[in-house]
Amino acid sequence: MEEELFYRALGDSLTVGIGSYFNRGFVSRYAQMTVEQLNRPVRTEVFARNRMTSGQLRAMIHDQHVRSRLMHSNIVTISVGGNDLIQANRMFLRTYNPVVFEHAEQQLYENLLYILYEIQILKWLYPTPYFIRLIGLYNPYPQLGYSQFWINRFNDVLKSLQTDHIRYVDILPHFSEGGRNLLAFGSIHPNRNGYNLIAKQLVNSGFSPLKI
Asked: pTM above the 0.90 mark?
């Protein structure tokens, strides 16, 4: 095998793997798929917390340990935004003012812009081939009539941040089609099948510039 790759997984409960019980969620599966695709060993580190918002991830980026690991990264995945939306919905149910969603959308954009800028600065300081994948949101509350509209709006924020090194990974259509079959029993989090699907979509997003 060739030289090892360094994979850093950032984000919320999806990155933690909540709901998969005996499986580490999409992170370990994606890492294994990457080994199989590129024939290179992958060293993985997870920097994630259940219920993490984009603001909390922005704060975590200042941690020197996290920064040193990101500096040497080749692969970065980010799952964030779902908790921003959930918090906005809680506020909406108290106020019925849709402005709370617009504010959360703007905050997500500003926080992710900052996070991605910081990662790219770190990679400028340590210039090795790398890419970043932004994992899109799915809709765990289809029964809420307005949920799909705001899921799409938040995903549009993620799409707008794409560059040569950054790609958006769309999982919404697959989770909409799979429904409860991709979610853990009694949970809004993916089950093993759901996490495997996320890993496959990450692989489908490609490995450039790591693979010619």
From this structure: yes
